[in-house]
Amino acid sequence: MKLSVKALVLAAGKGVRMKSELPKVLHMFAGKPLVLHVVNNLSAAGIDDITVVVGYRGEMVEEVVRPYARVVWQHQQLGTGHAVMQTKSIFQDFSGGLIVACGDVPLMKPRTFRNIVKVGLNDVVKAVVVTMRIDNPFGYGRIVRDSDGNIERIVEEKDATEEIRKIDEVNAGTYFFDAKLLFEGLETIGTNNAQGEYYLPDVVQYIRSRGYVSKPYLLDDPLEGVGVNSQEDLKRIEAIARGV
């Protein structure tokens, strides 16, 4: 079964915890900006149609990614769901699969992108969410599985009960969606949450309500899914990359 696949990279945030005026995704890692690692890894996975959502100081990010991807602007940072909504005009007639990746997760391997597409090649599976198990899940969205091991919902840290916060399987922020259902689902989500934002993971519940399945794809190595949110995070993954 052949499926047309495109990719979308979310790269609009400032990254307040970086304590820098430079957009987070332009901080250097292993010789190039974080966002270029993501774009290059998607290309290496065989994805040749890539869109990058830019926002904070977006003209700087656009200059870096323009040779490799089209650019869409998110002028207000109202959450990950809102960021994806900005690309509706590009993907509204697209009936294939869409990888959604984070511009600050540079270690996600091309093989992982290919594998989540393979998991999504199923008439019932309409979303695949990359997950990881970590010792300290604080700050991450928790994966709530149903009795079949599929994803029932994803609950953000600030919206989670104490019981849900005990779950150590978390959302790594990389997805594969049926594009049609993704944009249908985005029409149904709201901002009734602790952040007052449009959460992309809320689309999972819409997909479930339509009778389809969202599958978790658990990383063997959680380091692959680590995002860069601070200078300390950047130093940590630099050390990992150098094998220190």
Describe this structure in words.
- This protein has 244 residues and is α/β, with parallel strands linked by helices.
- It has a single domain (5-241), classed as Spore Coat Polysaccharide Biosynthesis Protein SpsA, Chain A (Alpha-Beta Complex), CATH 3.90.550.10.
- 28% of the residues lie in helices and 25% in strands.
- It is built from nine helices and eleven strands.
- The strands form three sheets. Strands 5-4-1-6-10-7-11 form a seven-stranded mixed sheet. Strands 2-3 form a two-stranded antiparallel sheet.
- It is globular, with a radius of gyration of 17 Å.
- The protein starts with a strand and ends with a helix.
- The mean pLDDT is 95.
Short description:
With 244 residues, the chain is α/β, with parallel strands linked by helices. It is 28% helix and 25% strand. It has one domain: Alpha-Beta Complex (Spore Coat Polysaccharide Biosynthesis Protein SpsA, Chain A).
> Helix proportion of residues, in percent?
25-40%
Strand content: 15-25%
Could you say how many structural domains there are in total? 1
Shape: globular
Radius of gyration using CA atoms only: 17 Å
Q: Biggest sheet, strands in spatial order?
A: 5-4-1-6-10-7-11
Q: Structural class, from helix and strand content?
A: alpha/beta
Kindly provide the name of the CATH class: Alpha Beta
CATH architecture, by name, is Alpha-Beta Complex
- The count of DSSP E runs of length 2 or more, i.e. the number of strands, is 11
CATH superfamily: Spore Coat Polysaccharide Biosynthesis Protein SpsA, Chain A
- CATH level 3 topology: Spore Coat Polysaccharide Biosynthesis Protein SpsA, Chain A
The main β sheet shows up as: 7 strands, mixed
CA-CA gap between termini: 43 Å
Number of helices: 9
Low-confidence stretches: none
Quote the average pLDDT: 95
Q: Give the topology string: H per helix, E per strand.
A: EEEHEHEHHEHEEEHEHHEH
